[in-house]
Q: What sequence folds into this?
């Protein structure tokens, strides 16, 4: 039986125009500095910051509020090593055989290759899983049934955006890594059949001498249209 909606008062702080601008500027200043970093320091990352960022990611809007995500936080060195080895095996195959020349050319300015040492030397790696469907257990019979999930790709994409922004605001550096195919992550991390790896995110402080590719974002005039 469908349940009826229950409403509650919205908790919303109406800000003064000055405060709105101040917050928007402060957020932009910090977020505009976000770069994908591949050179990390080995300094540990406070778990409180990771928990906070995942709490924020978990508050993202999702299709039918199904929250179709699982965030696996890995700090065990042996597990990170295992993931690095498996990711590099897939990536080597991709870079050397699966990716087209057009794709390799598009990536050339980033200077990436199949080697992924950052998976191992980040003190923390977050693997985000998308729950392609849910599992409902009947309280009486104990029988399991599939629950359809709506817009799970979009929902997890939004949650990852929240996650990256929260980690950036917390003063940490991230990298979005999508080794392809990612099935090995389900196996190594022992995830159930309804979950698909979505993205792997090494998190940490950048190395003191970290460098990033000299690439630019499109200006506002190129990405925004007013009608
Ligand atoms: N998954 C590979 C290749 C790669 C693909 C894209 I599209 C990028 O923006 C960056 C890398 C890798 O992680 O190296």
A:
């Amino acid at each position: 039986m469908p349940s009826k909606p229950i409403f509650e008062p919205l908790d919303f702080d109406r800000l003064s125009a000055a405060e709105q601008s101040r917050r928007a500027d402060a957020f932009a200043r910090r977020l505009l500095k976000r770069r994908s970093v591949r050179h990390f320091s080995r300094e540990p990352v406070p778990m409180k910051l990771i928990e906070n960022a995942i709490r924020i990611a978990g508050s993202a809007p999702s299709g039918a509020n199904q929250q179709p995500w699982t965030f696996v936080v890995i700090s065990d060195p042996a597990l990170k090593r295992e993931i690095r080895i498996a990711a590099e095996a897939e990536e080597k195959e991709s870079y050397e055989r699966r990716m087209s020349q057009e794709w390799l050319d598009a990536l050339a300015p980033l200077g990436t290759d199949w080697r992924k040492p950052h998976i191992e030397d980040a003190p923390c790696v977050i693997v985000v899983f998308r729950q392609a469907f849910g599992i409902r257990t009947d309280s009486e019979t104990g029988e399991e049934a599939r629950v359809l999930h709506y817009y799970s790709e979009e929902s997890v994409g939004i949650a990852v955006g929240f996650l990256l922004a929260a980690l950036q605001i917390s003063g940490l550096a991230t990298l979005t890594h999508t080794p392809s195919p990612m099935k090995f992550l389900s196996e190594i991390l022992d995830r159930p059949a309804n979950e698909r790896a979505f993205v792997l995110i090494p998190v940490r402080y950048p190395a003191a001498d970290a460098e990033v590719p000299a690439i630019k974002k499109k200006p506002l005039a190129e990405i925004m249209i007013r009608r």
Summary: The first strand starts at residue 69 and ends at 74. Residues 91, 107, 110, 112, 177-180 surround 3-iodo-tyrosine (CB under 6 Å). The CA atoms of residues 90 and 180 lie 6 Å apart.
